[in-house]
Amino acid sequence: MAIQKVGVVGCGLMGSGIAQVSAQAGFQTVVREVTSELVDKGLKGIEKNLARQVEKNAITEATKSEIRGRLKGVTAVEELKDCDVIIEAIIEQLPAKRELFSALDALCPSHTIFASNTSSLNITEIAAATKRPQRFVGLHFFNPVPIMKLVEVVRTIATDLAVYDEMVQFGAKLGKTPVRAHDGGGFIVNRLLVPYLLDAIRALEEGVGSVVDIDNSMKLGCGYPMGPFTLLDFVGLDTTLYISHIMFDEFKEKRFAAPPLLKRMVLAGWYGKKTGRGFYDYADPANPKPMSL
Ligand SMILES: NC(=O)c1ccc[n+]([C@@H]2O[C@H](COP(=O)([O-])OP(=O)(O)OC[C@H]3O[C@@H](n4cnc5c(N)ncnc54)[C@H](O)[C@@H]3O)[C@@H](O)[C@H]2O)c1
What we know:
Layout: E1 5-9, H1 13-24, E2 28-32, H2 36-55, H3 61-69, E3 71-74, E4 85-88, H4 94-107, E5 113-116, H5 123-127, E6 136-141, E7 150-155, H6 161-173, E8 177-182, H7 189-205, H8 211-222, H9 228-235, H10 237-251, H11 260-267, E9 280-281, E10 289-290
The protein binds nicotinamide-adenine-dinucleotide.
């Protein structure tokens, strides 16, 4: 099957990035939001990104116009009905995703492939809301989508292998490096990253080192671009806690259990950069100061 038209549902942080890379890769792209204000907001963000690429001479003004011409923002779900692939990037709530895919299943022709960008939910459980689990995969992109090179292509036990291979190739056509992952909690990246981040918090709790010393150790000793506490503040402590609950529920292993300090910080409303406080205080964003915890 030749993929020509791509649907994206949700034009927030991730959906707008996915719609941008899809249009940039040459696909006719329809992106759906719940209100026209949110459609406009998402499309404006994409236009800003493209304008920045023109400024940097990465693309010409003419290319920018062509990319923009391939993008259509809509609010009616019916407008997605003739898409060959539909990628969902709406809120991380199972009932909302299942309801959406059930409606799309009734609307779309049998060849349409469905994909979810969920970070932590079970792809199998989302796919079970449709009558086409064999044409259902996870496509897990990373933030910011136009910049981050990875896409995890996730297969469930019900995914047809030919469909899966096609989606791996589709990931490459979007300019990403696709990796093949099974539908196990956290796929590949979070399966390895989440225990590491939780262990850094446990090390802090046990007095192994300070926030700054642990961050510097992993940056300078291991060559990581940022230390675990800087990364935790960037990802969001609320999001990390939520993912750790889901992974602990799946594996029942201590390495996925949330340390008490993480729970306390979320209860206190310290979610990281987005709330101005986490492991660092961002009152002066250019010069974050470690919190005394
Ligand atoms: N933020 C990240 O770093 C990241 C990384 C990988 C995957 N994800 C996953 O991507 C998904 C979206 O996350 P986000 O960070 O872009 O969230 P976001 O809140 O920025 O965007 C979600 C958007 O979906 C819209 N929406 C909700 N229901 C809708 C519906 N039925 N139809 C159309 N639009 C709808 C909302 O209005 C909102 O604009 C989640 O499943 C999340 O787990 C997020």
